[in-house]
Amino acid sequence: MTAASLPAVEQAPPPPAPRTPWFAPLLRRLHFFAGLLVGPFIFVAAVSGALYALTPTLETAMYPHELQASSTDAALPLADQVAAAENYVGGGASPVAVRPAPSAGATTRVMFADETLPESTTRAVFVDPATTEIRGDLPVYGTSGAMPLRHWISDLHRSLHLGDVGRWYSELAASWLGIVALAGLGLWIGRFVGNRRARRDLVRPNRAHRGYRRLFGWHAAIGIWVVVGAVFLSATGITWSTFAGAHVSDLRAAVGESAPTLTTSLGAAPAEGHEHHAGMTAAAPQTADPATFDDVLALARTVNVNVGAVEIRPAASAEKAWVVQEVQRSFPTEVDAVSIDASTMRVVDRVDFADYPFLAKLSRWGVDLHMGTLFGLVNQLVLFALAIGIAALVALGYAMWWRRRPTTAPARGALRAAPWWGIGLVLAIAVGIGLLLPLVGYTLAAFVVLDVLLGWRARARSSAGAGVRPGAGAS
Questions:
Q1: Which of 14, 174, 242, 436 is most buried by its number of CB atoms within 10 A?
Q2: pLDDT of residue 459
Q3: Dihedrals φ, ψ of 83, to 5°?
Q4: Is there a contact between 177 and 34 (Cβ–Cβ < 8 Å)?
Q5: Strand pairing partners for 68?
Q6: What is the pLDDT at residue 17?
Q7: What is the distance in angstroms between the CA of the first residue and the CA of the last residue of the chain?
């Protein structure tokens, strides 16, 4: 039989080429470059945040004379305390707000507008409620009533004392922190699932390892313990930011989840569906009779004000009502408010925290937890440990990069190996994040441009090296 007459043997089709993984390399490159370039901002925010976490307790220890009364005797009427503060300040000054002593042994704060102080800052006179002795005179900031130490550290954390421009740093850090943390979590899960022998090392660092492996072990182990907290700090920090914070407020308003507004206009119907800003007016109100503070507080106690930590704000004009607002930021949260027409002692409007939409409640709890006030000292210690852990992750990341420089960068081209739907999904997520978090969008675009330029330079060097003949030199 000739070869031509032999039956043809049907050849099996070649097995399909295995698809090149793309998602994990993309996460690795994102985690690497974002951590490398944004790491300094995250590190500064973490260290300053660790300091701020302890300020409620430090504040109590640093200002005992101002915060503590000389006795625990029964308090005199607020009228006497306000009158003592007004006489101390002089010049016919009238307070913009009064915070009665929240408990026996604490002082009353009588706050005055002062044009020499920064925005949202008032001059607080601390009065012994039992004797009307003036215990102190300090500037305090915002609705938190932060005293100078806490305000200085807060401003360092928020803006590096650089004003509005400085706030971009904290927004950049808060925006990227969650992204870097989630990318790291994805890489950690991939290693945990794919390498059973190393699972214990990913949760608890192996002390037997040395060099880069030891650094990586600590980075991975600390990262998995702080990832949830890091994402929480990122999400809650964004709500205070300049650009992304405005978008968050707009989204909450669009879905009807903003906190209700307390109506203060006399004769106006209660407004609904708008954000209630509890900050005190910057301008001095009409001259208020000190006795009215006792009257409006007594009426508010019969409506919905039932805690010691409250703030009373006089009417800013004849067309406005007085406001009595709970300011208890520890759990259970108490921020009920009532507006009162002081001329007729009529309740104009009331807002109860129990009636807040769910997202508005969640935002209130998240902010207070972020500030370390929701659960007291335990809250502060956990935040301190979390912030130190985040700072340690940044330091370990740079140490890992230094150990393996200059070849430590993950290889580029991961997205080119992705299927069409993967490319579309990544682009859609990038655009969505860029719209919600503008500073992430700008810096992400800068990362892409930088990556493209580095790729061009690498290819140019490779081509130039391939074109030079061995031994050739300049003529």
A1: 174
A2: 80
A3: -60, -40
A4: no
A5: 106
A6: 54
A7: 69
Q: Which two tokens stand for residue 351?
A: 């807002």
User: What are 227-246's pLDDT values in tens digits?
Assistant: 999 999 999 999 988 889 88
CA distance 60 to 49: 18
Whole-number Å distance between alpha carbons of 456 and 354 = 59
pLDDT tens-digit series, residues 276-325: 333 444 444 557 889 999 999 999 999 999 999 999 999 988 899 999 99
Whole-structure pTM value:
0.86
